[in-house]
């Protein structure tokens, strides 16, 4: 196995090129791009006797960035890591093997893909606007450097050679000209345990907020998302319909609407339309901060009072279930803080319900809903400037008590 990782060093929130020159390399927590080249066979592994050392092909270059209100440069480092076991096999052969050549070609192609400017989160917090330029490597020189490291075990890091650097279509000025220079809010939910169908719909919906710009006075989730249809990639999943959960197109899309709601709510935007789910859904903890949508009747809307456009970025991880939506725009002169949800009223879950169905074999039993208490929850949104709260809003959510529901074949 071989993976690539991206590192960025910058004058992170320190300002100016002087700080850049003095700072060290700081890792950005980006999803690793994992390759799966051919693995060594057990017979080959038995021939390995000496301690194995990994081999790294490293690319470094300075790219434009916007830090603390100024254009500057940051050092970008991207690495192709060859694990110790595989590196030792390659070194014994003394050449760039066919599988390594394939990995090298893919890695160089990705470097030339760029991706445009976007916001990058730094260790310890804070965001930096980084322009991911396109880099064309000198393939022969890079391959020669890698081969030299293969033949000389004392060289554990080979340096890639850059032939040309060019700017992407989406540069720093794309954001600066629109005043989009600050982080507004982050929404977070967790969908671990979701079915394959539910995750599919989450992926489709989340992709609509990946590196996208919103311009306008009123943000409508349904309008920004577009139609929930099979043609757009959605599949059947569980949805809440009336007094039960049943199969419906796009089941799971409310994971996206809830996460977007939390992002824009933390950004301080005024809520214009928001609907809670019928009951407290376990995927949306902490409770009281969910947002149900159902096209075309139920929408999620915010007034855009930022004075400019809003830029969305997303990331998600199916293994952990972590899902984040980030919003960026003109910097605010205040911070938003949320209180813990308060339970104002609570009612216990009712007795289990059984529904006869023809969709299951006779006598077969399947649980389709899980019990949840009903009640009223409140969350305070505090607007803070210079350490002083100057406005407080209360978000109220009402939920029905919900039973365990079982389908039983007739």
Automatic annotation (TrEMBL):
Which residues are the signal sequence here?
Answer: 1-21
Q: Does the keyword Signal apply?
A: yes
Note the superkingdom of the native organism.
Answer: Bacteria
Record-linked Pfam families = VanW
Mitochondrion among keywords: no
Q: Which of UniProt's keywords are assigned here?
A: Signal
Q: What is this protein called?
A: Vancomycin resistance protein
Q: Which organism is it from?
A: Deinococcus radiophilus
Lineage of origin: Bacteria, Thermotogati, Deinococcota, Deinococci, Deinococcales
């Amino acid at each position: 196995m071989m993976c690539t990782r991206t590192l960025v060093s910058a004058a992170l929130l320190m300002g100016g090129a002087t700080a850049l020159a003095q700072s060290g390399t700081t890792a950005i927590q980006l999803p690793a791009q994992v390759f799966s080249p051919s693995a060594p066979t057990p017979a080959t592994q038995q021939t390995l006797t000496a301690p194995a050392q990994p081999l790294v092909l490293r690319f470094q270059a300075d790219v434009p960035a916007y830090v603390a209100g100024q254009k500057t440069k940051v050092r970008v480092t991207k690495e192709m890591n060859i694990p110790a076991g595989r590196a030792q096999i390659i070194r014994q052969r003394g050449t760039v093997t066919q599988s390594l050549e394939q990995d090298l070609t893919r890695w160089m192609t990705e470097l030339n893909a760029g991706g445009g400017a976007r916001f990058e989160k730094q260790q310890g917090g804070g965001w930096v606007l980084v322009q991911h330029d396109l880099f064309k490597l000198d393939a022969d020189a890079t391959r020669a450097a890698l081969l030299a490291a293969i033949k000389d075990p004392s060289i554990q890091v080979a340096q890639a050679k850059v032939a040309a650097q060019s700017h992407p279509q989406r540069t720093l000025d794309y954001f600066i000209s629109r005043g989009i220079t600050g982080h507004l809010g982050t929404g977070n939910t967790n969908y671990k345990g979701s079915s394959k169908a539910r995750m599919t719909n989450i992926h489709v919906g989340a992709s609509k907020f990946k590196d996208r710009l919103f311009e306008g006075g009123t943000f409508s989730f349904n309008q920004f998302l577009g139609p929930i249809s099979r043609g757009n990639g959605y599949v059947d999943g569980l949805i809440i319909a009336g007094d039960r959960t049943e199969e419906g197109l796009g089941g799971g899309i409310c994971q996206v609407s809830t996460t977007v709601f939390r992002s824009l709510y933390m950004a301080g935007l005024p809520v214009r339309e928001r609907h809670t789910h019928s009951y407290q859904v376990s995927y949306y903890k902490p409770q009281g901060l969910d947002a149900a949508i159902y096209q075309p009747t139920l929408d999620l809307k915010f007034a855009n009072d930022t004075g400019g456009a809003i830029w969305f970025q997303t990331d998600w991880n199916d293994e952990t279930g972590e899902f984040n939506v980030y919003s960026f725009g003109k910097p605010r002169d205040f911070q938003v803080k949320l209180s813990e949800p308060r339970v104002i009223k609570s009612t216990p879950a009712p007795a289990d319900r059984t529904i006869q169905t023809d969709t299951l074999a006779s006598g077969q039993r399947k649980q389709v809903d899980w019990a949840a208490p009903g009640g009223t929850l409140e969350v305070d949104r505090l607007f803070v400037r210079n350490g002083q709260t100057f406005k407080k809003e209360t978000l109220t959510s009402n939920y029905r008590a919900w039973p365990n529901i079982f389908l039983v074949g007739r």
